[in-house]
Amino acid sequence: MARPLLRSSTFRLTLLYICLFSTSVSILFGFFYWSTLGFLSVQVDEALDIEVKGLEERYEVDGLNGLSRLIQERIKEQPPSASTIYLLTNSGYNRIVGNLNRWPSGQKDDAGFIDFVLEDTRFSPSPVIPARGREFELSSGYRLLVARGNKDLQSFRKRIVWTLGWGLGIMVLLSLIGSILMNRGMLKRIDSITATSESIVSGKLSQRIPTRGTGDDFDRLAEHLNHMLDQLESSLENVRRISDNIAHDLKTPLTRLRNRLETLHSKHFDSNEDLELATREADGLLATFNALLRIARIETDAKTEGFDLVNLSAVLDDVVELYEPLAEEKNQSIIITENKQSYVFGDQHLLFQAIANLLDNAVKYTPVDGEIRAFLKLDNQNVTIGISDSGPGIPENLRDKVLQRFYRLDSSRNQVGNGLGLSMVAAVCKLHSTQLCLTDAHPGLTISFTLPLSPMALGAKTETDNRTPVTP
To answer: Does the N terminus or the C terminus of the chain have fewer Cβ atoms within 10 A?
Structure first.
């Protein structure tokens, strides 16, 4: 489930939205943090300015003694939790009065403010507290420092950062959880559409995409697709019906024509050459229509009711035995290189016809004195059956086309045939949920297909002597 979820376009769009939203929220939080702390810092600086101006006015009225008494009074009056710092020194920075032992070290800015740190001796160990003060030089060289500890401001800053950080993290986590839950529901709907599409591709044209009756986008899409599938099924059914009707309608007069030609051929011995050619043409047309009807039945039914346990080794022996006389006419040899007993679940007659078509093509395109190899190999839980010839082969770029109906290579136009043999084999393979594999035989061509071994094969007996041959 994790891999389809990560590959989901909806999940990726959701992640992109989360990233954009998180970036926007981070920028908003940053502005809030900057504006809030900036406002508090301005408030502190203004309070320090007011404090310094008040002390300066007292100094101008009462002199140094009056200023000293006022500083001592304010130090005594402020509660223990207060963090206001006073320090009055002479020109040599020697302490006169105040609650700070010495002048702090720190860089003064243009406005006269200085940032420094001090130790709170009320606790052990003494914590370091950041402070910000306003320095002012009085007449006669006296220096005045009024400062406030930034412990509360620093705590407030940490609290803001902690709150914003956890808020952003929780938001991203909840967004991811919501995205996963939302995408799982969407993936289930998409999987149902995909499963239905695969069933339709496999030949079950009556399948339709399920709907939930919610009227959402997926239901609307499913309804439109189902309507389209209804139209396609109806059109395909009409085409198949018309094709079957044409084939049946033409098969009957062709059969009559062939019988009449046969009758004329038996009566007129002097001019039987033209009649014999006409009879062959009628046979070719009948074979073509019979092949079309077989392929249509296989593709239309696409059912496995006729499937049973099939001894594939026996089927291969029967096909080779049937075509050996035809191969001997061209002085060809059919060799079974490997034939292990194997049982599959399938349609015995269709498998016989498919193997026979492959062997018929091999005999047809293998040159005189050539060699044809048939094999049946076991591999784990599968069995592969194939035919190799020593003919001209098929170019790789045309191997898919030769499986189409009536497609024939230019080099095989002079050969007897209708271009339906491999199409019928491909239809049988599709019915058995497998595919034809065409590879080079160096020289020639190897055509094979693979079937799963039947679980019943473990208990099946190889009674090759008592088997009944299958006829095409």
So the answer is: N
Does a structural domain hold residue 94?
yes
330 close to 366: Cβ distance less than 8 angstroms = yes
Identify which of 156-160, 169-173, 288-292, 435-439 has the greatest average pLDDT. 435-439
Q: What is the pTM of this model?
A: 0.46
How far is residue 191's CA from residue 182's CA, in Å, rounded to a whole number?
14
pLDDT of residue 468 exceeding 50: no
Mean pLDDT to the nearest integer, 81-99: 82
Q: Are 343 and 459 in contact (CB under 8 A)?
A: no
Tokens of 12: 């990726």
Q: Who contacts 236 (Cβ-Cβ below 8 Å, separation ≥6)? A: 205
Last residue of a domain, one of 281, 300, 319: 300
Q: Which residues make beta-bridge pairs with 373?
A: 335, 388
Choose between 367 and 38: higher pLDDT.
367
Q: What is the pLDDT of residues 269-286, one digit of tens each?
A: 555 566 666 666 666 666
* Same domain, residue pair 34 and 114: yes
Rg (CA), the chain: 48
| CA–CA dist 355, 321 (Å, integer) | 12
Q: Indicate if 324 and 230 belong to the same structural domain.
A: no
Domain-ending residue, one of 259, 276, 300? 300
- Asked if 148 and 15 sit in the same domain, the reply is yes
Pairwise CA distance, residues 358 & 146, whole Å: 104
CATH number, residue 270: 1.10.287
**Distance separating alpha carbons of residues 243 and 289, to the nearest angstrom:** 10
pLDDT confidence band for 163 (50 / 70 / 90): confident
Residue 464 has pLDDT above 50, yes or no: no
Instruction: Report the candidate in 428, 173, 467, 108 with the shortest Cα–Cα distance to residue 299.
Output: 428
Q: Omega before 367 cis (within 30°)? A: no
If one compares 270 and 321, the residue with the highest pLDDT of the two is: 321
Q: Strand 128-137 and strand 143-149: pairing?
A: antiparallel
414 residue type, one letter? N
The boundaries of the domain holding residue 255 are: 217-300
- Strands 343-346 and 333-339, how do they pair? unpaired
